[in-house]
Amino acid sequence: MSGTYTSPAASLTDSELEARRKAVDDMFQGYKKKAFSKAPDMSVKELHKMLDKKNSSTSKQVVVIDVRTPGEREVSIIPQAISRSEFEAHKKDFEKHTVVAYCTIGYRSGQYVQELLGEGFNAFNLKGSILEWSLEGFALVDPNGKTTGESAETKRVHVFGENWNLVGRDYEAVWFVRLPIHRLLWDFICGWFRRIRALNFGFLG
């Protein structure tokens, strides 16, 4: 069984922010060397510029793929991103697009980009992925929080695990945690006691 842990919003000094940027870059470069050395990178600043609504001609030529799990994507996504399954279902529609894939830091998306390169796509791995996106302070959206026909902005970021809690200033890190069996049993027992008390009070009333 698992639960969800949310860290408080990160209030960071400039030096702490730079330290997180370096940590993300070091982790990304280490992963790339071992697992996806052939995947070309794109910086978050480059992608942000391409997705700018003012630059409509460019935004129509790029497709952003979030390769994370549904649970991770439910927390937040980069604006205009689609899931891997959505992309796979409509691959032919994107043959002439610039394809940019991302995950938490770039490990899973880097491996996926290598696959796409083998299929002939003009594909790039988003360097530092959603962590780097948050470190730059760029907007994220809650795909389930609809407001006025568009997804609502959010400061929550799924970071995969505690070791990747390197979000930007004022962002909240979210990750799934496995609860120990004694905690699950305790929660179960407390829940039953609350039900029994409610029933007893209802009977006495």
Structure description:
This protein has helices spanning 14-35, 44-51, 56-59, 70-75, 84-89, 107-118, 129-135, 181-204, and strands at residues 2-6, 41-42, 62-66, 82-83, 98-102, 122-126, 140-147, 150-154, 156-158, 172-178. It is globular and about 65 Å long. The protein contains 8 helices and 10 strands. It is 43% helix and 23% strand.
Distance between the termini: 37 Å
Main beta-sheet annotation: 5 strands, parallel
Q: Radius of gyration in whole Å, from Cα? A: 20 Å
Residue-averaged pLDDT, rounded?
86
What is the strand tally?
10
What ranges have pLDDT less than 50 throughout 5 or more consecutive residues? none
Could you give the topology of this structure?
Layout: E1 2-6, H1 14-35, E2 41-42, H2 44-51, H3 56-59, E3 62-66, H4 70-75, E4 82-83, H5 84-89, E5 98-102, H6 107-118, E6 122-126, H7 129-135, E7 140-147, E8 150-154, E9 156-158, E10 172-178, H8 181-204
Parallel strand pairs: 2-6, 3-4, 3-5, 5-6, 9-10
Antiparallel strand pairs: 1-10, 7-8
Short description:
The chain has 205 residues and is of the alpha/beta class. It is 43% helix and 23% strand.
Keywords:
five-stranded parallel beta sheet, globular, alpha/beta
